[in-house]
Amino acid sequence: MPETAPLCRDGEGPPGTGGVPDPAAAADRPQAGAHLAARAPLTALRRLGTGPRGLTEAEAEERLARYGENAPPEWHTPSLPRRLLRGVRDPFTAVLLCLAAVSTVVGSLGTAAVIAVLVSVSCLLRAGGELRADRSVAGLRALVAGTVTVLRRADAADREPESREVPVGDLVPGDVIRLGPGDLVPADVLLLRATGLVVHQAPLTGESQPLAKYVAGPAEPPPDGDTRLFEQPQLCFQGSSVVAGSCTAVVLATGADTRLAAGHRHRRPARSGYERSVHRVAWNLVRFMLLTPPLALAADAAVSGRGVEILPFAVTVAVSLTPEMLPVVMTAVLARNAVALARDRRVIVRRLPALHDLGAMDVLCLDKTGTLTEDRPVVDRAVGPDGTPDAEVLRWAAVNALWTLQLAETPVPDALDEAILRAAAARPEVAGWDEEHEGVAAVPFDPARRLSTAVVRTPGRLGTHTLVVKGAVEAVLERCALEEPEREALRERAARWADDGLRLLAVATAERPAPAPGKNYGTADERGLTFAGLVALRDTLTTDAPEALRALRDKGVEVKVLTGDHPGTAERTCRELGLDPAGGAVLTADRIDALDDRQLAGAAQRATLFARCTPHHKARVVAALRAAGRTTGFLGDGVNDLAALRAADVGLCPRDAVATVRESADVVFGERPFAALDETVTAGRRSGVSLASYLRVALSSNFGNALAMLVAVLLFPFMPMLPAQVLLQNLFFDAAQLTFAFDRHGPAALRAPAPLRPGEILRFVTVFGVLNAAADMATFAVLAATVRGAAGEAGQALFHAGWFTENLLTQAMVMVLLRTRGRHRHRGRPGPVAWAAVLLAVTGLLLPLTPLGPALGMVPALTPVSYALLAAVLGLYGAALAVAVRHYGRRLAAGRAGIGLAAGRGAAGRQP
Ligand SMILES: Nc1ncnc2c1ncn2[C@@H]1O[C@H](COP(=O)(O)OP(=O)(O)OP(=O)(O)O)[C@@H](O)[C@H]1O
Fold first, then answer.
1. Residues 824 and 719 placed together within one structural domain of the fold
2. 23, 236, 531, 806: which has the fewest C-beta neighbours closer than 10 Å?
3. Is 612 in the pocket of ligand 1 (CB under 6 A)?
């Protein structure tokens, strides 16, 4: 807050109008917010057919029927046709459609028809899967839907409104609501009163700097155009969040009429880290696919002089590279794990792809208060400047808590204020504290300033006001008129108590002459204060936190604590949790400030505890960890955690977190977070491992086949497989791969974070693709040597049948052997992938024998010698695959350990 920022005076809001709604005047449509905002609050209230005391229940009900539910735009899921259209925009589908067009032009209608079937099946499966997944997420979202504090009256005769919580969806234009720190602005609203209000409007404007909002004076010019509208001080919009301060406001527009809904229609959701990795792999493949037909044509023309007659085959090779089932498997895996988490552990995954990031997470940052502690602190003692018990200190602390709560109209007190009010109410030595003072002005608690201020009339001294300031020890002491040694001694006492695990608040007061009418208090008045004393509070650790954090560390997730609290208190908490803060040095906010981003990336990796953090520090630390290549999660519950939560790869919060945090989090825990943390991470890993398995299997098999076909077309004077055969076996392989969505994994595969590294996947695909192509080449050699008259039509039909069978058998083998990375094999009953592989192998063996075989140009009349030789090729390929997978798994493990060591050493060498 700037030094001159005003402290709001009580009663600055519009005077009451009697609140009788004027139905005849309620002609303004709710979306006409701009011109309503240009009017004085009273005129706007009248136009909306409401008053400062809100609507009656009957009016609210009638308006709800008229304007509909106040559902945020992201709750509206697109229809099936819209999803189908979106599926066509997928790069693979687009390439397939281009290839179908080329096939049609060159007269290969069969190929075009099969591609069309492939595209339709994959688009339908994908759209259906997405629809199901979105429905589940919408259902889960409803479980964490927020509420808002609204003023409503039972009927028109009822003069005093009741302030109560209603679901955000029930809000209607004309409702009068109250918002406090951490609240999400639930609709487009016009401020009636505001105290120190600061909102974050990034979801609407992209502007990351929070903006002060206040009730504009009559001299303010009216708004013109949308950009100005967001800057209007008296307007707040759905989707913004309250960073600090509080307000009473009237609802102008809800649901589809809000500015957020209007903007949302044109916005695409941002991609998660995991989605970006998949996208990178996909684009590499698309490039290869686009290169394939011209390459095949050119090479064939050079070697055997054939022309465009091989184009259908070249197109088919490109088609066979596509992992058509990628979107389907991805959506199905995510939805399945998310639904299981919600059902079994009451964990709600609000953004499905976040589950992958959770699986890849290797560092989890936690805020202390409310997450690691129970958030029900109790006052332990209150002492004066000399360290002896002093009831006056508790009295002033309670006065501050009461009046900041009342004047700032914060909907609920925070845990520390609540504890102070409880203690003051229970102690006879401070009896009457709540009647002695009358509040004048207040600035509620702000985590960036770390203090709150109330101004009260001084009893018995007309024209004198008392400023009561309460907050973090350092923040209050630096505003007190103290000699340096005295200040230092107080700091040391606070540090000693903090080491004992006590949470400390300092209290200071100052008497000031009441300002002249029209003049406000400013933050500059919070100087030269008289130190009153310290209030010490005790907080207990969440019982299941130590065990859950140990389990997490055993799974390779590093734990770091980021807190606004005193380093001593936080260090003690860390020790009780089994974390060793001293091992990596405690980073306090002032040390963080002294580091640039690069230095912070190193220091943040080493430290376990970050104390005295403002929201900005927490976000910087999270961003620094991400910049250092760590997949970072953040678990927090307060408004001071919001920026960090948004900066993290994956944001987590408990269900009772403040509304903005709940809306920004990717994962919301329905019950105690630590009871379900382990399983949530495991579910994330399960989906990450499933998807990586699918990519490994699909891509290396497709790549190997394409490579073999390209070489074969150059070696043989005929096509090694007819386009229809390639596409059919592609279809069978695709169908079998759908089972990856239901794959089971052994504990070993889930023991470490499961990131998707595009480079690693592409290297794997290249190595195993070449191995696959080598097996195919060996098959060609066997068939060429044993099939007599291969150049003739009958010989070709034999050749095709032989390769068709061998190809499906190798694909089945790849599904089983490349599914895991050697060491991670799941032991026990065969899972769905194994069964699908068996079915695929049986199809490969039997299909050429059915009437479909000859219809597709295959005659399976191979000699026993051919069969024996093909079996030998398969056996050798299987053995080579098993050895390569084992070797690869070992190298990967060694490489990761090496990387880990190197990073650790490097980081240790760089001191900030
Ligand atoms: N209601 C309050 N009034 C005055 N001072 C407060 C109040 N709440 C917190 N403080 C002070 O401000 C400091 C920072 O508070 P903040 O809410 O940012 O973090 P925290 O609650 O200490 O920890 P965490 O970041 O783990 O949630 C607190 O340690 C405390 O000293």
1. yes
2. 23
3. no
The question of whether 175 is a catalytic residue gets the answer: no
Task: Write the ipTM.
Answer: 0.96
Distance CA 411, CA 74 (A): 26
Are 495 and 638 in the same domain? no
Under the banding of pLDDT at 50, 70 and 90, the label for residue 905 is very low
**583 C-alpha to center of ligand 1: Å?**
25
Give the Cα separation of 167 and 147 in Å (integer).
Answer: 4
Phi, psi of 347 (to 5 degrees): -105, 130
Q: What is the pTM of this model?
A: 0.76
Cβ of 472 closer than 6 Å to ligand 1, yes or no, is yes
- Residue 703 shares a structural domain with residue 660: no
Residue with CA at minimum distance from ligand 1 atom 14: 564
Residue 80 included in any domain: no
Ligand 1 centroid to 110 CA: how many Å? 70
First-to-last alpha carbon distance for the chain, in angstroms, is 30
Question: Are residue 660 and residue 699 in the same domain, yes or no?
Answer: no
Structural domain span for residue 397: 378-538
Quote the ligand 1 centre to 397 CA distance (angstroms).
14
298 lies in the same domain as 431: no
Find out whether the beta carbon of 368 lies less than 6 Å from any atom of ligand 1: yes
Of all protein residues, the one whose alpha carbon is nearest to atom 17 of ligand 1 is 447
Whether pLDDT at 13 is above 70: no
Whether residues 193 and 284 share a domain: the answer is no
Q: Do both 558 and 426 map to the same domain?
A: no
CA of 554 to the centre of ligand 1 (A): 31
452 lines ligand 1 (CB under 6 A): yes
Nearest Cα residue to atom 4 of ligand 1: 471
Digit-coded pLDDT (tens) for 490-513: 999 999 998 888 999 999 999 988
Q: Is 152 in the pocket of ligand 1 (CB under 6 A)?
A: no
CA–CA separation, 125 and 84 (whole Å): 10
Q: How confident is the model at residue 383 (pLDDT cuts 50, 70, 90)?
A: very high
Is residue 265 packed enough to be buried (19+ CB in 10 Å), middle (13-18) or exposed (0-12)? exposed
Residue range 73-100, pLDDT digits in tens:
555 566 777 777 776 766 677 777 887 8
**All residues at 6 or more sequence positions from 862 whose CB lies less than 8 Å from its CB, including other chains:** 786, 787, 798, 801, 802, 870
* Tens-place pLDDT, residues 693-750: 888 898 899 889 888 888 887 777 777 777 778 878 888 888 898 898 888 887 777 8
Last residue of a domain, one of 538, 563, 595: 538
Q: Which of 183, 367, 666, 678 is catalytic?
A: 367
